[in-house]
């Protein structure tokens, strides 16, 4: 289960670089390959338990509204979790922390003249609400720092007792990086022994407990203070999952130093050389002609503002069209492309419905269509097994619907169409199932959506009756009014399609 770390040091002792070899965990081979940032290549995803896998995600520091950089990370991770759960049928146990005490939270509280708890509660509630709007599934377990302070202190205490951490002259506690021979396994770093610190033994050492006499603070064996950022995730993840985690996820910006430090101190705590078997990192989200999106750079777009410009489904589609490890460029063009792709699939599903309702006459080649479906299913399986390649999946789906559409829009010259509802339904079901696996649903089951649908049904039936009257009486004025209603509804996202004397609608 543990990795083997091979340490190569420069004999000059001026500097050294660590090299690490990752060894496959013992367990059940899922048949999936994922990118490994230690080996810098795709490795077989092997989980410790055949019946379930454990997944920890770094949660937010709740001091401000979340931006779409956060949204892209959590949506992409949600897509991967759904693939593992809904496509590969694994029982994925998910855990997330909430950092509800931090210097940024305290500063925000002082600015607004409220308590730090009020700030944390406000932005945590906003965070969950926006994740719900984005269709992101909530984790099975959520652990807040302030509710688990005893566990964090206990975690640090063990590291100090085993001389892997120390109390410095500033009364803070630091992890001793020199005690972790595999430090730098996630991101190659150079270590210079000549670099000194006035407080720490090494400039690479990082804070586990930050001394503070100011409020808020907690008591500890080393005095009053608050935990460091990195130790929170290690202590909470270990509490929820234990000494070995299958998958640990977050944005690429967390790989170093946050995830590197998590791995180092957790390996020290559990006396193991590998705490996390697989690290999954999502790429940055950039604004066009800009650096990565972050609050510190003041170039953020809030989730709530983005959802005023586009839909959650369109944003999710943009994430699907990008490999999870790749950077994304946020722009109006990106959103428009995603909206168009979403519209193509929605129109395809509507066309299939029209065909099954016999609004649309078509000639279907059953054998050819089923062969295309089978090939698409095989290609999609290969793509998902290859580091969750969702853009390639979308390419294969597009090819399948193109083949199907060509049949749906072809009628027999003899007037005897081969209808074959079953093969068209099979393709429609497959497309909807794959997209649903990614969290894209074209048919809402909510009561408000059902009420809206019933209202539009009534309007469509009324227009259809009026239109039939206009056709029978050859009344151009009535038909013009019906066209006006159709065009007006289209401007509001409702598409009316006329099929002879019958009409259908979609949105």
From TrEMBL:
<dbReference type="GO" id="GO:0004817">
    <property type="term" value="F:cysteine-tRNA ligase activity"/>
</dbReference>
<keyword id="KW-0648">Protein biosynthesis</keyword>
<dbReference type="Pfam" id="PF01406">
    <property type="entry name" value="tRNA-synt_1e"/>
</dbReference>
<dbReference type="GO" id="GO:0006423">
    <property type="term" value="P:cysteinyl-tRNA aminoacylation"/>
</dbReference>
<dbReference type="InterPro" id="IPR009080">
    <property type="entry name" value="tRNAsynth_Ia_anticodon-bd"/>
</dbReference>
<dbReference type="GO" id="GO:0046872">
    <property type="term" value="F:metal ion binding"/>
</dbReference>
<dbReference type="InterPro" id="IPR015803">
    <property type="entry name" value="Cys-tRNA-ligase"/>
</dbReference>
<feature type="domain" description="tRNA synthetases class I catalytic">
    <location>
        <begin position="50"/>
        <end position="339"/>
    </location>
</feature>
<dbReference type="GO" id="GO:0005524">
    <property type="term" value="F:ATP binding"/>
</dbReference>
<keyword id="KW-0067">ATP-binding</keyword>
<keyword id="KW-0436">Ligase</keyword>
<dbReference type="InterPro" id="IPR014729">
    <property type="entry name" value="Rossmann-like_a/b/a_fold"/>
</dbReference>
<dbReference type="InterPro" id="IPR024909">
    <property type="entry name" value="Cys-tRNA/MSH_ligase"/>
</dbReference>
<comment type="similarity">
    <text>Belongs to the class-I aminoacyl-tRNA synthetase family.</text>
</comment>
<keyword id="KW-0862">Zinc</keyword>
<keyword id="KW-0030">Aminoacyl-tRNA synthetase</keyword>
<keyword id="KW-0479">Metal-binding</keyword>
<dbReference type="GO" id="GO:0005737">
    <property type="term" value="C:cytoplasm"/>
</dbReference>
<dbReference type="InterPro" id="IPR032678">
    <property type="entry name" value="tRNA-synt_1_cat_dom"/>
</dbReference>
<keyword id="KW-0547">Nucleotide-binding</keyword>
<comment type="function">
    <text>Mitochondrial cysteine-specific aminoacyl-tRNA synthetase that catalyzes the ATP-dependent ligation of cysteine to tRNA(Cys).</text>
</comment>
<protein>
    <recommendedName>
        <fullName>cysteine--tRNA ligase</fullName>
        <ecNumber>6.1.1.16</ecNumber>
    </recommendedName>
</protein>
<comment type="function">
    <text>In addition to its role as an aminoacyl-tRNA synthetase, has also cysteine persulfide synthase activity. Produces reactive persulfide species such as cysteine persulfide (CysSSH) from substrate cysteine and mediate direct incorporation of CysSSH into proteins during translations, resulting in protein persulfides and polysulfides. CysSSHs behave as potent antioxidants and cellular protectants.</text>
</comment>
């Amino acid at each position: 289960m543990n990795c083997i770390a091979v340490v190569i040091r420069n004999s000059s002792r001026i500097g050294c670089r660590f090299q690490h070899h990752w060894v496959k965990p013992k367990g059940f081979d899922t048949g999936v390959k994922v990118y490994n940032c230690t080996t810098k290549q795709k490795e077989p995803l092997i989980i410790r338990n055949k019946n379930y896998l454990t997944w920890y995600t770094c949660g937010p520091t709740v001091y401000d509204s979340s931006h779409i950089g956060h949204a892209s990370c959590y949506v992409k991770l949600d897509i991967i979790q759904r693939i593992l759960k809904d496509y590969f049928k694994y029982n994925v146990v998910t855990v997330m922390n909430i950092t509800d005490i931090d210097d940024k939270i305290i500063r925000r509280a002082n600015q607004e003249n409220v308590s730090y708890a009020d700030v944390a509660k406000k932005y945590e509630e906003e965070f969950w609400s926006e994740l719900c709007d984005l269709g992101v599934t909530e984790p099975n377990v959520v652990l807040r720092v302030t509710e688990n302070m005893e566990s964090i202190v206990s975690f640090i205490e063990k590291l100090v007792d085993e001389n892997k951490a120390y109390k410095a002259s500033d009364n803070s506690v630091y992890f001793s990086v020199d005690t972790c021979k595999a430090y730098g396994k996630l991101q190659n770093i150079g270590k210079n022994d000549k670099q000194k610190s006035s407080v720490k033994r090494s400039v690479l050492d990082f804070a586990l407990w930050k001394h503070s006499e100011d409020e808020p603070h907690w008591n500890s064996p080393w005095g009053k203070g608050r935990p460091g950022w990195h130790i929170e995730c290690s202590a909470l993840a270990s509490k929820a999952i234990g000494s070995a985690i299958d998958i640990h996820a977050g944005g690429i910006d967390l790989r170093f130093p946050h995830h590197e430090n998590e791995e180092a101190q957790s390996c020290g705590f559990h006396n193991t050389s590998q705490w996390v078997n697989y690290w999954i990192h999502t790429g940055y989200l950039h604004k066009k002609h800009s650096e990565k999106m972050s609050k510190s750079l003041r170039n953020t777009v809030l989730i709530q503002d983005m959802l005023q410009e586009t839909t959650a489904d369109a944003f999710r589609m943009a994430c699907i069209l990008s490999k999870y490890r790749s950077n994304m460029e946020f722009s109006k063009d990106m959103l428009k492309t995603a909206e168009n792709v979403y519209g193509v699939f929605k129109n395809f599903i509507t066309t299939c419905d029209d065909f099954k309702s016999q609004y649309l006459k078509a000639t279907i080649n059953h054998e050819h269509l089923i062969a295309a479906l089978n090939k698409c299913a095989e290609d999609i399986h290969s793509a998902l097994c290859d580091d969750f390649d969702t853009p390639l999946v979308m390419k294969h789906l597009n090819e399948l619907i193109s083949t199907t559409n060509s049949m749906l829009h072809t009628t027999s010259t003899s007037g005897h169409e081969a209808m074959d509802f079953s093969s068209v339904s099979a393709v429609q079901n497959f497309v909807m199932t794959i997209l649903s696996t990614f969290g894209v649903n074209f048919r809402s089951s909510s009561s408000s959506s059902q009420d809206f649908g019933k209202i539009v049904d009534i309007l469509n039936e009324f227009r259809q009756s009026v239109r039939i009257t206009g056709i029978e009486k050859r009344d151009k004025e009535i038909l013009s009014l019906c066209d006006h209603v159709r065009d007006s509804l289209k401007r509001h996202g409702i598409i009316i399609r006329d099929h002879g004397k019958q009409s259908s609608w979609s949105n």
